[in-house]
Amino acid sequence: MTETEGRYLIGAILISFGITYALSVANIVNSPFWLFVSCLLVMEGAYYTAKGITLKKDDISFPLAVLFLGIFELLFLFNLIHYSFSVFIAAVLLSIGLGLVVSNFLAKYSYRKMLSGIIVTVFGALFAISSMLNVTDKVDRWIRGYGIGILIIILGILIIFPPKGGNRER
Fold first, then answer.
1. Is 27 left (phi over 0), alpha (psi -120 to 50) or beta?
2. Rounded to whole angstroms, how far apart are CA atoms 133 and 5?
């Protein structure tokens, strides 16, 4: 960790703590700990995403996933999305998928990473649809049975076949 990154981390922790303290005193949030964590995730994700774009890094999908996860946590915290474990899993999958997809537009383009991001995003959206929306049992059974199975098969095929020009034996 460089001196600038260390200073940013300490500053981000203090800013997150200040936001948490101010909103806790005003009785706006119920869980100050998760507000602190989500503010820190958003700030760190934004910093490392901006740093990756500025330095022209090949892969910024992880900082973007952290940023999106922090945003989803803020949405849970302020009750804009009702929290349940399945919705949390959907948020994690959507964060990873959106990080992969958006990373392709901001950094080096990779067809496999884009396809993997779309699959993980659809996988998370299927979880979110069945958990957040009022869908019938027939649609929910189809989503959890066939839809998720098909996506797992496609993801497995992507893992088995090497990238274009890649080496099968490593």
1. left
2. 41
User: Which residues touch 64 (CB under 8 Å, ≥6 apart)?
Assistant: 45, 49, 98, 99, 102, 103, 106
Task: Tell me the pLDDT of the chain (170 aa) as tens digits.
Answer: 788 888 888 999 999 999 999 988 888 888 899 999 999 999 999 999 888 888 887 788 899 999 999 999 998 888 888 888 878 888 999 999 999 888 888 877 777 788 888 888 888 887 777 766 666 777 777 766 777 777 778 777 777 776 665 555 44
Coil, helix or strand at residue 118 = helix
Residue 84, classed as helix, strand or coil, is coil
For tokens 């890649």, the residue is 166
Which of 115, 125, 118 lies closest to 147, judged by CA? 125
In what helix (H) or strand (E) does residue 38 lie, and over which residues does it extend?
A: helix 32-54
